[in-house]
Amino acid sequence: MKIIAYGIREDELPYVKEWENDNQIKIETVPDLLDEKTVQLAANHDAIVAYQQKDYTPELIKKIRDLNIKYLSIRNTGVDNVDGDAVNQYGLIVTNVPSYSPSAVAELSIAKLLELFRKTPQFNRKMKNNDFTWEPDISKEIRTQTIGVIGTGRIGQTAIKIFKAFGAKVIGYDIYQNPTLKEEGIYVDTLEELYAKSTVITIHSPATEDNYHLLDDEAFNKMQDGVHILNMARGTLIDTDALIRALDSGKVAGAALDTLENETDYFNRKLKESQVNGTFKNLLQRENVLITPHTAFYTEPAVRNMVIDALNASKDLIETGHSDKEVKFK
Ligand code: COI
């Protein structure tokens, strides 16, 4: 059985070794990300393991199939970078890791909201200048807030539990309603209702064609003045220019963004100052906007599960042609 794993980082290697020992199968690991050029490294392998950072284009998918490889196991959840039509056209079988650690993502939302509320950047700045005063950086408390959760899958559900533990009122919106949450009366019927009632909005939806720029000018206008926005999901869910307008007008009092439109130009790279520009620079310069470079997934338990589950899926595919982690593209 020959599996090649792309984009393997130092922090993933111990988990690859663990899996190799448990399964007595050697994995070829390469640091390169999977793309149209590096795909050649997969020649003579039975399956590819990779993770999302670049687009998996029709050209790449064709090249994978031209190498006679049928199986691609991605070790993350989102499949919005995968061209589903090409997957179906060329007969590639793709698996993902649907739930490596909902806590990893949910906890970052809460951590960032606390930083926004407690004015951490403001106090850090003041302290650096020997300014140990309090005013004007008074905080809100989570228990006084109405948290609107968009997307109540595994991550949304975990966020709901944590926000409730802080004593917040939580409301949710999803096109697929979870029966337990429904019984608890969490759901509002429309996004408009969620926008109108929430003092904090946190997004935990996958990116689809239907929710591109879900939060746009129109959506921001329907929100309360001074709302806080948390996006640990996908950059395309927020129209960045509209968010900047809403920050400028004060409609949005603060935002924490772990994902951004066009984030692959910036995230998980070391850049020169001259390469940081445009809306990205605009957002980075604001004390009431906290940006993290798509780190919500980046915890020890999550990374271990991503590696182990993806390798297990890959092995299942090679041995049986099937995996319970198979992704169906419409
Ligand atoms: C995902 O699992 O979908 C993520 O956003 C993690 C990232 C490494 C692509």
Main attributes of the structure:
14% strand; six-stranded parallel beta sheet; globular; single chain; five-stranded parallel beta sheet; 12 helices; 330 residues
Report on this model:
The chain contains twelve helices and eleven strands. By secondary structure, it is of the alpha/beta class. The strands form two sheets. It has a six-stranded parallel sheet with strand order 7-6-8-9-10-11, with helices on both faces. The chain has a five-stranded parallel sheet with strand order 2-1-3-4-5, with helices on one face. Strand 3, helix 2 (58-66) and strand 4 form a beta-alpha-beta unit. Helix 1 (13-23) crosses helix 12 (300-320) and helix 2 runs parallel beside helix 3. The longest helix has 21 residues, at 300-320. The chain is globular and about 65 Å long. The model has no long low-confidence stretch (mean pLDDT 97). Bound molecules: 2-OXO-4-methylpentanoic acid.
List the helices and strands and how they pair.
Elements: E1 3-5, H1 13-23, E2 27-29, E3 47-50, H2 58-66, E4 71-74, H3 84-90, E5 93-95, H4 102-117, H5 120-128, E6 146-150, H6 154-165, E7 169-173, H7 179-183, H8 191-197, E8 200-203, H9 217-221, E9 227-231, H10 240-249, E10 252-257, H11 278-284, E11 289-291, H12 300-320
Bound molecules: 2-OXO-4-methylpentanoic acid.
